[in-house]
Structures are given as C-alpha cells and as structure tokens.
Specification:
Structural class: mainly alpha
Strand order of the largest sheet: 1-2
Helix content: over 70%
Largest sheet: 2 strands, antiparallel
Strand content: under 5%
Number of domains: 1
Number of helices: 13
Order of helices and strands: HHHHHHEHHHHHEHH
Number of strands: 2
C-alpha cells in the first residue's frame, strides 16, 4: 500500500512538472518543443518522477494484489490537488478539498471492507487468451466507435479505452515483475508478457492523449480514473484467482465505499483548479528585486 501511494505521489509530481515546464514552450513545432523541454530542469524532474512512479507501481504489484494496488493509484488526483496548493500556491476551493476527503474516505472503506485475498501469480494460457480477448477486444471496439460523434462522447470512449488498456498494462507489469524475481532476466526477455506490456503501455499513452484532445477533461478524467481499478479488480478475480469475502454485509459496505469513491472523483475533477500557472510572480534572477516585483 505504501509503495502504491508513493507511486501515485510520483505520478502527481510528473503530471504537474510536465504541464508547468511545457506551458511556456514554443508552439507549432514538435521538434522545437522537444529541444526546449530537454533544456528545462523541471521537465527532467518530471521524467524522473514518471520513471519512479513506474518502478514503485511495479514493486507494489510484486508485493501486493492487483485489486489493491490499482484502486490506490486513484490518490494521484488528491496529491495533485495538494501540490497545486503547496507548490503552485493556487487557491483551492473548499468543494475541492471536500471532494478529496470524500475520495479518500470511499477508498479506505472499500479497501478495508473488500479485503482482497488469495490468488496465484501464474495464470493458464487459456485464461490469458480469454482475458485479452474480452478486454482487448472491448478497447478496440471503443476506439472504433470514438472515431465519430460529439466531443464528449468521443472523449468518454477514448478515456474508457485508455482505462482498459491501462489495466491490462498493470496486469503485464505484475506478471513481468513476478517472472523476473522468480526466473530471472532471460525468462522475462523470452516471454511474451514483456512485449504485451510495451504494446499496452504505448496504446494507453496514446489513448489518454486522444481523450484529452478530443473532448472535455471533466468527461474523460473521471472515466479513466474510475474504470481502471474496476477493470483491474475484474482481471484480478478472473485471471489471478483473487477473491473477496462472502459476507453480504461486508460486500455491500465495500460496494458503498467504491460508490463514494466514484462520486468523490467526479466532484474532484469538476472542482479542482484548471490552470497550472504559479500564482506568485517569478523573479528574474538578472533583475533587482524591486523591478522583478514590478
């Protein structure tokens, strides 16, 4: 759980540093923008945070269950909100803080009540084929349907496809890490899950960008954030044989907690600050303090 939370924090740092460092970059040329970003220390910090988030997620999946780790990554939204206030010094509305508390409370209730257990690290080839066919096929269908329609509809479909491929990518991460710790590097390089990880990772990245490009963030972000853990839980039960308690009351409490989590995420994406600019003016080191303030 601690590794998953650290991964979410690193991902939040990556999101904000990448946005802030690229905001003043040149427009109209990807090559000029790339050269500009490579000279920005803040952007390089963001790259390091992105790599740290991946490593921490892999370690969390190695030590924990898919159905526990992926829901915890939702806290990235909360960490982004805290960084906006502490680092960017932005004014954050009370509604946003309330939504963050609601998100964390729902997540805590879900994890405590659900308490995933059991599971095995080596699924059969048949189960792999079925899971990839169902979820991979669903992602392809959503991408095809997203080719036309209103901006909100397209953003929702691309966001849902990104969430599904992201959950599959997390599944491959878990499999690769387990194989690496048990059988070594040669087994990882000779096994197909590593290349499945590359394909789903790249696909998820492009689909996230497509969702953000074609429609409003308030539509795509809640879908991506909420659907990813739902699909991950389904995969963990289906593929790895994880299971939850059979107590009806406890299951109902877990379902209620997840519903509260969903509501919190939706409100958080709608009430959080939209702008990534630093509130206080930045002083030019080449100017006197009085002129910089002016």
């Amino acid at each position: 759980m601690l590794l998953a939370l650290a991964s979410a924090m690193s991902s939040a740092i990556n999101v904000l540093t990448q946005r802030v460092s690229s905001r003043r970059g040149p427009t109209g040329s990807w090559w000029r923008l790339a050269k500009y970003l490579l000279r920005q220390s803040l952007w390089l910090i963001g790259v390091g945070a992105m790599l740290a988030a991946f490593v921490l997620q892999a370690l969390a999946l190695h030590h924990g269950r898919l159905s526990e780790v992926q829901p915890l990554l939702v806290t990235e939204l909360v960490f982004v909100l805290v960084l906006r206030r502490v680092w960017l010094r932005q004014a954050v509305r009370s509604a946003a803080w309330g939504s963050a508390v609601l998100t964390c409370a729902g997540l805590a209730v879900f994890l405590v009540a659900a308490e995933p257990r059991g599971g095995h690290p080596t699924p059969s080839a048949h189960l792999w084929a079925v899971v990839l066919g169902v979820f991979g096929g669903a992602a392809v269908v959503m991408v095809v349907l997203a080719a036309r329609g209103s901006p909100s509809r397209r953003a929702a479909l691309y966001g849902a496809a990104a969430a599904v491929t992201g959950a599959l990518s997390a599944t491959f991460i878990k499999t690769v890490v387990v194989t690496l710790s048990r059988d070594g590097t040669v087994a990882v390089l000779s096994g197909w899950p590593l290349y499945g990880l590359v394909v789903t990772g790249v696909a998820s990245t492009f689909l996230v960008q497509a969702a953000l490009h074609v429609g409003p963030l308030t539509v795509s972000q809640p879908i991506m954030v909420v659907l990813n853990p739902i699909v991950s839980i389904g995969i963990s039960v289906w593929l790895f044989g994880e299971f939850f308690t059979h107590d009806t009351f406890v299951v109902a409490a877990a379902a209620f907690g997840f519903a509260v989590l969903v509501v919190g995420v939706i409100f958080l994406t709608r009430t959080a600050p939209r702008d990534d600019r630093v509130s206080a003016p930045e002083a030019d080191p080449g100017l006197p303090a009085s002129k910089a303030a002016a």
